[in-house]
Design brief:
Helix 2 runs parallel beside helix 8 and helix 4 runs parallel beside helix 5. The chain contains 8 helices and 7 strands. About 40% of the residues lie in helices and about 20% in strands. It is α/β, with parallel strands linked by helices. The chain is globular, with a radius of gyration of 15 Å.
Length: about 190
């Protein structure tokens, strides 16, 4: 029986980040960064067409990034949001990100059922989403069940939510994934595009 597991970001990511000169001052700029991160994950063949990052929006500082690593790690929990939130928590050495400022989660697609559950427990104070659930499901992904008013439920907990930011650009990454022959990794079996 294994007693530990680990998730490692792809080897290309530090080089990719070093080559970037992004001005991350706006929600749109942060979303554009995350969408390109998702596209690079597909281009490199290291996972699915999703990416996320945690930012300090006041000073435009990037805290942590995550890409979908489900197929690369063999772990269903290795969604981009889960990776980014976990790395941000590791960065601060604290499970409660609320103790470290008004942190923002930016994700290339609205959260699936699992990631939706993780958002309030992480301590982020805001979330910006690109593609919608129906976009991911149209591409073949099982996003699971969550309340229809999911964004309102987060707002009631004090988490600001912006939806549909650069939605078309975020959805285009699903098409790129299809063109690359990406695997749809749903419970109960894989189905390719």
């Amino acid at each position: 029986m294994h007693k530990t597991f680990s998730i490692e970001l792809p080897a290309w990511l530090p080089v990719w980040l070093e080559q970037r000169g992004d001005d991350l001052a706006t929600d749109e700029a942060r979303m554009s960064f995350v969408i390109e991160l998702a596209r690079q994950n597909v281009r490199a063949g290291t996972g699915g067409p999703f990416a996320a990052a945690v930012f300090e929006p006041e000073n435009h500082r990037l805290i942590a990034m995550g890409v979908n690593l489900v197929t690369a790690s063999g772990l269903s929990l290795a969604h981009a949001e889960m990776v980014a939130l976990s790395l941000a928590q590791q960065h601060f050495g604290d499970w409660d990100l609320a103790r470290h400022g008004e942190l923002m989660l930016v994700t290339s697609c609205e959260p699936c059922a699992m990631c939706f559950g993780a958002v309030p427990w992480s301590g982020v104070r805001s979330m910006v989403c690109g593609a919608r659930k129906e976009d991911a499901e149209a591409a073949g992904f099982d996003e699971g069940h969550k309340p229809d008013d999911w964004a309102s439920s987060l707002r009631e907990r004090g988490i600001e939510v912006s939806e549909g930011v650069l939605r078309e650009e975020a959805t285009e990454v699903f098409d790129f994934y299809r063109a690359q022959g990406g695997v749809i990794y749903n419970p109960g079996g894989d189905a390719e595009f």
